[in-house]
Amino acid sequence: MLKLLRIELFKIFKRPRTYIAFGAIAAVVILFQVGMKFDGKTYLDLVLNNVSDSFEVSDEFKSKLLNGYFICFAILNILLIQMPLLVALVAGDAIAGEANMGTLRLSLTKPVSRTQYMLVKFMASIIYTLLLLIWLAVLALFGSMLVFGTNSLVIFRSEVIEQMNSYDVMWRYFAAFGYAAVALTTVSALAFLLSVFAENAIGPIIATMSIVIVLTILSEFNIPIYDKTVKPYLFTTHMVAWKGFFYVQADSDNKTIDGTIQNLPAILRSMGVLVIYIVGFVGTAIWIFRRKDILT
Amino acid sequence: MVLLLSMVLLVNAQTPDDVIKNVKAKLDKVNDYQAKGKMKTNVIFIKAPVANVKVYYKKPNKLRINNESGISFIPKGSVNINLGNIFVNTNGFDIIDMGIEAKTNLRIIKLLPRDENSDVVLSTLYIDESQSLIKKATTTTKENGTYELHMTYGKYADYGLADKVIFSFNIKDYKLPKGITFDYDDGSKKKESPDKLKDKKGKVEITYSDYSINKGVPDSIFK
Amino acid sequence: MSAVIQVKHLTKDFKELKAVSDLSFTVDAGQVYGFLGQNGAGKSTTIRMLLTLIKPTSGEIEIFGLNLHKHRNEILRQVGAIIERPDLYKYLTALENLRIFAAMSGVKVSEKKLMEQLEMVGLAARAHSKVKTYSQGMKQRLGIATALVHDPKLIILDEPTNGLDPQGIADIRNLILQLSREMNKTLLISSHLLSEMELIADSMIIIDKGIKVVEGKVNELFDPAETVVELKTTDDAVAYERLQQSGLQQFVSGKRNDCILLKLHRNDTPAVLKELVQMNINVISFHSRHSLEDYFLSLTGHPNAEAITN
After folding, report:
1. What residues pair up with C243 in beta bridges, in sequence order?
2. A-chain residues near C76 (CB < 8 A)
3. Residue B181: which of A50, A261, A170 has the closest Cα?
4. Coil, helix or strand for C6?
5. Inter-chain contact B42–A56, Cβ cutoff 8 Å?
6. Other CB atoms closer than 10 Å to residue C276's CB: what's the count?
7. Which chain A residue's Cα is nearest to B72?
8. What is the spatial distance between Cα B119 and Cα B74, in angstroms, rounded to a whole number?
9. CA B183 to CA A292: how far, in whole Å?
10. Residue B99: in which H helix or E strand, if any?
11. What is the pLDDT of residue C308?
């Protein structure tokens, strides 16, 4: 199985299109960092609008807010919406790409069971996803820390401002990236499933993105009819739970307690939902693929 | 018993003007100070850790709270933490004696600035006469509503400098559109205090550990 | 001779059509087995079922004496195949492609062996070129190398000479013969080049519309010495009348717009030619049609063809 996995990774990384995603991430991160370096304070003015009435908001204060941890958080908020497309590029190509190239029929005459073939393909796309996230972490987190320094992380939620000590931040990022890996693997699994039905990668890629976009919009809507009936079951609702690692528990005096998470059970529940989706998508993909007549 | 009575009578004998004079005299001993402190912010919409701050003061009414390395939300009007600010006034005050508050035994004196342009409209002071220390002050301003100060004194009492100050101030409602925040709803219940009015007020508690008094503080700190 | 492939009552129903119907045949060890049929006859579907790409609706397949469904991996380790075009990874080099498919075949193949394979098909010099730069013929040869790299016992080739020039076709023919005669491999070859099949196949099956038409040893099914002649004269109508009334009547098998068809044994040719001259029939051309092709057409396309069933 390991040998097959090596082969899959070799094939993925020999293709120029694989590197588009890495390039895209680098471009977005660097552009954002440059923008914030030159004009971050204007961006902050927007979020500090309410606050500046009651609190001192000096340039020095804004400079400290615009530290590496904050920049990274802002980048993740933007990028983790676009990442599903980048992930679908490889996962959607997994089976459809081989069918399109004509290599699928030769591969499936080899002494490798279809289940094994599918699992290896999926594992390869997980590894690709992890590498994308590591790349993102290096640029967005460590890169920002290098350029903007570190300080407390202050995040502005719609009704609350969360501030955590700088020594209390890094482990949250590790947890958040870990969670993001699971979230993106869910998208990967969906693209993978759709790949089984197509003979061209474009179809599954576009279909995956369309589904993710539509469901994300539904997840973001605050319409009561969707709140109870549909939202809790959408995987897109649970994909954003990584942010929960940055919501800190506070005592009755609103003093944050280091090393805590406001609602860890909620995050774990969300992760559970995502895992169920992954198993469902991949299981279905394998089940269908095992029965499929290969005519390409 | 007689001694006690006479002491009480002696104290009671102080006019409100005297009380204020004595308090002011104590405060006037301090030209400037630098102090290290731990600051706790208690605002309904801010969750923050305890911060290590430095407080700088220079006569008559320059006060600055600095978090040198970290980030702190310093309330506007924090200059009012400086008690001296109450007495900064060109035209003097009308002093109104409200008597003794029974449960605390503190002398309540109201100050009405005569200057119509003054931002401060009214100050109510709760004074420990025996030590000439202001234990509590409520200041109403034109621009920023009402502030409240609670002081606890220790080894710097002689200078009228508190060991602990609790400063309450008005806060405007905080709300950001979801489009900017991309909030994640983790199902946690929104914190709601039983007293709605409380939500409109923030509190900052500073516990001082070190005063460096009259050693000189450069003006540049207050810019 | 032991059977390498045994197909029993194989049927495949797609929704709209019955691609293969109750097909049974046997391929013996060491044979070159020809798999013949028109386009759409069901050859490709059958080959895909042998290679587990398509699931049969019913029927049984045994390879190396083992049930294909139950011993799939064990069997496929010993099978090499080209199915239709040999599509490979265009963005990889020939060597990289070969390495990948060798690894997937479950056999450890050394770099030396990989180069030897490329050498064998004449691609050693282009081993490090990306496949997208290859011509159709080169891709075909690479496909063959891929089918053989893990030294399989059974080789299934679908149109192996596609896109090859005459020299290339001859090379493949010699390779197939070498694999069969010297290395005792079993080969199942589907091809339209009947002239080639006649030269290499030991046994064959002809299928039409998913049904077996005939199966057997090539030399038992038709005599290569039997030919069909296309006779063209200056006046075919007159010539035809006269032939019907002559001693050559027994050889006349039909008439087309452009010629008269004769069916005769090779040995009869000199006597027939002599007779035509004596009858003053002006012969423009006397063309012997390939016998296997004719046999094939007579079974599958000729309007008077009779299906010979087992």
Report:
1. none
2. 109-111
3. A50
4. strand
5. no
6. 21
7. A61
8. 20
9. 43
10. strand B93-101
11. 30
Q: Hey, what's the torsion of the CAs at B35, B39, B43, B46, to 10 degrees?
A: 120
Domain residues of chain B, as ranges?
14-174+193-209
Q: Give the whole-angstrom CA distance, residue B55 versus residue B164.
A: 12
* Both tokens assigned to C216: 């057997």
Q: How confident is the model at residue C258 (pLDDT cuts 50, 70, 90)?
A: confident
B174 touches chain A (CB under 8 A): yes
CA-to-CA distance for C239 and C231, rounded, in angstroms? 10
Peptide bond preceding C303: is omega within 30 degrees of 0, i.e. cis?
A: no
Portion 65-104 of C in contact with A at CB < 8 A = 72-77, 79, 81, 83-92, 96, 100-101, 103-104
Regarding predicted confidence, which is higher, C97 or B141?
A: C97
Q: Contact A152/B44, CB-based, under 8 Å?
A: no
Residues in chain A with CB shorter than 8 Å from the CB of B201 are none
Q: Nearest CA to CA, how far is A63 from chain B (Å)?
A: 10
Range of the domain at A254: 2-291
pLDDT, tens digit, for every residue of A164-176?
A: 999 999 999 999 9
Contact C203, C217 (CB under 8 A): yes
Question: Is 70 exceeded by the pLDDT of residue B13?
Answer: no
Tokens of B162: 């508190």
**Could you give the CA distance from residue A73 to residue A154 in angstroms, rounded to a whole number?**
10
The answer to the question of residue A296 being in a domain is: no
C-beta of residue A128 within 8 angstroms of C-beta of residue A90: yes
Q: Quick one: DSSP state of residue A247?
A: P
Tell me if C190 sits within 8 A of C205, measured CB to CB: no
Whether pLDDT at C29 is above 90: yes
Helix (H, G, I), strand (E, B) or coil at A14: helix
Asked whether residue A263 is assigned to any structural domain, the reply reads yes
Rg, C-alpha atoms of chain A:
21
CB-based contact B71 A243, cutoff 8 Å: no
The answer to whether B84 and B66 are in contact (CB under 8 A) is no
The verdict on domain C3-217 having CATH code 3.40.50.300 is yes
CB crowding B191-206: b at 16 or more within 10 Å, else e: eeeeeeeebebbbbbb
Q: How confident is the model at residue C304 (pLDDT cuts 50, 70, 90)?
A: very low
In terms of phi and psi (left: phi > 0; alpha: psi -120 to 50; beta: otherwise), the region of C30 is left
B3 at the A interface (CB within 8 A)? no
**What topology is assigned to B14-174+193-209 in CATH?**
outer membrane lipoprotein receptor (LolB), chain A (2.50.20)
- B184 pLDDT band, cuts 50/70/90, is confident
Interface test with C, best of A3, A100, A106, A112 (most C CBs within 10 A): A106
Chain B residue numbers with beta carbons less than 8 Å from the beta carbon of A162 are: 47
Rounded distance, CA A292 to CA A296, Å?
11
Bridge partners (DSSP) listed for residue B149? B137, B167
- Tell which residue, C80, C47, C60, C212, has the closest CA to residue C150: C80
**pTM of structure:** 0.86
pLDDT for res B7: 55
Nearest-CA distance C176 → chain A (Å): 20
CATH number of C226-300: 3.30.70
Helix (H) or strand (E) holding C12: strand C3-13
**A205-230 mean pLDDT:** 88
Q: What are the domain boundaries of chain C?
A: 3-217, 226-300
Instruction: Name the phi and psi angles at C67, rounded to 5.
Output: -65, 125
Touch between chain A and chain C: 3 or more Cβ pairs under 8 Å: yes
Number of domains in chain A: 1
Q: What ipTM was reported for this prediction?
A: 0.87
In a domain, A147, yes or no: yes
Q: Is B165 exposed, middle or buried (0-12, 13-18, 19+ CB in 10 A)?
A: buried
pLDDT in tens, B135-159: 999 999 887 788 899 999 999 998 8
